[in-house]
Design a protein that fits this description.
The protein is of the alpha/beta class. The protein folds into five domains: about 1-80, no CATH class; about 80-110; about 125-200, no CATH class; about 210-330; about 365-500, Rossmann fold (3-Layer(aba) Sandwich). Helix 7 packs across helix 17 and helix 16 (about 435-445) packs across helix 17. It is about 35% helix and about 10% strand. The strands form five sheets. Strands 13-12-11-14-15-16 form a six-stranded parallel β-sheet, with helices on both faces. A four-stranded parallel β-sheet has the order 9-8-7-10. A two-stranded antiparallel sheet has the order 1-2. It is elongated, with a radius of gyration of 38 Å. Its EC number is 2.4.1.-. Keywords: Glycoprotein, Glycosyltransferase, Golgi apparatus, Membrane, Signal-anchor, Transferase, Transmembrane, Transmembrane helix. InterPro entries: Glyco_trans_11 (IPR002516).
Length: about 500
């Protein structure tokens, strides 16, 4: 601090830091800007001879006149007030924080994470949503809801593009949950209506005399195939039966039969003694999932005989031409779909709580099936089963999150503890509210997009659904194993599904 025109007697010249600049008569004022008793024009504060410490001020070389105290006692350095500097620093800090917030929001929107954008008015009328409870009641006379009436009076067709773009930012968590479930229920109703129409036309086909001949699996109930394997065997038998003008027969009741509403239209039950004797030759499977051209000659090889076969029969080409039939055959019963919707409601309510975490649009549902459990070790692992890698799972969900945001992931697995370690983002729902395989599969059929791991269970969840994009793990089965030698990817995975690594 500088003091001008003060009497020398009023200045303490013995203090450590002298406040009076000593101007030499033969030097211009501009060469002095320090506050010591011996300025040298360097812009530094020099201590008294007893203390030689030098402190850089950073002020430009100016005369003492430029550093005088203002009328409001504010010290100026280089012409700027410290209050001004403080204000500018505060403004800069606010600007940087705002930029950080904007970047965070942009990142969340890009990756489908939910943000806290200011809510807008919910466009859906509560009167429209009040009909939702009627949908979940088993009342055959109740027509399904086809449209929602908006507050502006317009109608939105369920499962239409306008439904995907419905602004729900101002809606409560309960309304968003109901909207998601309402859209899925509409999908279930539509599929049921399509299947009923198909069955009506299918049953009008006149049976031929040769359809008294049958195709049956020799040991379906004895081996104890799982749900996915059971469905592959029935679907393959149906495709072969249609190609050879035969019918499908089950030699014994199988526990999975009770899951499907329309199975009785596609199969018959026959006793083994009715169809085969001890001399009947079984048509053995050469490979699990490699197309065998000899299968095309069944009509010639077995002109007037019932055909017993065995194996896993996982070449989808043998029944894919009858996809509508297969979907109708494996339509789940009402109690299965009702339980699936009830468990999904629990998952959504547990996720949303009382806060609407959605963006302005309803989130797309991405099913993630992760099979682990029995394939991590033991005989299935030794045969060639390989669980999907963590890298594949993360890459696949990141792809879905980046491409289709906003998204909500539903994880279905027999290894939920592992899945919770892998998927740490906040838009994952872990569907461990039940222990029913058929309910899990029914949920997979309702997803907008799917990330599969390995095996036949997830395969059928994708095949029976309408997912717009389906990923599967490329490195299954494991190289150098028996299972790898018996499965050809192009015969097991549809070409429209995407192989991931």
């Amino acid at each position: 601090m500088y003091m001008r025109n003060m009497p020398q007697s009023d200045v303490d010249t013995t203090s450590e830091y002298s406040l009076v600049p000593l101007l030499k008569a033969d030097e211009p004022e501009e060469s002095y800007c320090d506050t010591t008793g011996s300025c040298d024009g360097t812009g530094k504060l020099r201590s008294s001879p007893q203390n030689q410490t030098t402190i850089t001020l950073g002020c430009p070389r100016r005369s003492p006149i430029a550093h005088e105290r203002s009328h409001d006692n504010t010290l100026f350095c280089g012409g700027f007030s410290w209050i001004t500097v403080l204000c500018l620093s505060t403004l800069l800090s606010w600007f940087l924080w705002s930029a950080y917030q904007e970047l965070s929001i942009s990142r969340n929107k890009k990756h489908g994470l939910f943000d806290d954008s200011p809510p807008t008015a919910c466009p859906v009328t509560l009167d429209s949503l009040s009909k939702l409870e009627k949908l979940f009641r088993v009342v055959s006379a109740q027509p399904p809801i086809k449209t929602l009436r908006m507050k502006n009076g317009s109608l939105v067709e369920m499962n239409s593009p306008s439904m995907d773009n419905l602004a729900v930012g101002g809606c409560s968590a309960a309304v968003v949950t109901d909207l998601i479930l309402l859209g899925l229920q509409r999908t279930i109703d539509r599929r049921q209506q399509e299947q009923e129409r198909f069955l009506q036309s299918w049953m009008m086909r006149a049976p031929t005399a040769s359809q008294e001949l049958f195709i049956a699996h020799n040991n379906l109930s004895v081996t104890g195939f799982g749900l996915g394997n059971f469905m592959f065997i029935l679907a393959t038998m149906y495709g072969l039966a249609r190609n050879t003008s035969r019918s499908v027969a089950l030699l014994e009741f199988h526990k999975h039969e009770k899951l499907f509403a329309n199975l009785e239209y596609f199969i018959q039950h026959r006793r083994r003694a009715e169809l085969f004797d001890k001399s009947t030759e079984v048509l053995h499977e050469k490979h699990w999932a490699i197309f065998d051209p000899d299968i095309l000659h069944l009509s010639t090889d077995y002109p007037n005989e019932n055909i017993p076969l065995d194996g896993y029969r996982q070449v989808f080409h043998l029944f894919d031409v009858y996809k509508r039939d297969i979907r109708a055959m494996f339509a789940f019963k009402q109690n299965v779909t009702d339980e699936a919707m009830a468990k999904l409601r629990l998952g959504l309510e547990g996720y949303f709580g009382t806060t609407n975490k959605s963006n302005d649009q309803l989130p797309k549902l991405v099913g993630v099936h992760v099979r682990r459990g029995d394939i991590l070790s033991g005989p299935w692992h030794d045969m060639g089963h390989e669980p999907a890698s963590k890298a594949y799972l993360l890459r696949s969900v990141l792809h879905m999150q980046s491409k289709y945001a906003p998204v909500l992931f539903l994880v279905i697995s027999n290894g939920m503890e592992y899945c919770r370690e892998v998927f740490r983002e906040d838009n994952f729902i872990f569907m461990d509210y039940h222990e029913s395989a058929e309910v899990d599969m029914a949920l997979l059929t309702l997803m907008d997009y799917l990330v599969l791991s390995v095996g036949t269970f997830g395969w059928w969840g994708a095949y029976l659904g309408e997912a717009k994009e389906i990923h599967y793990y490329r490195h299954w089965p494991r190289n150098g194993t028996v299972m790898k030698a018996g499965i050809q990817p192009k015969d097991f995975w549809p070409s429209t599904w995407i192989a991931g690594t």
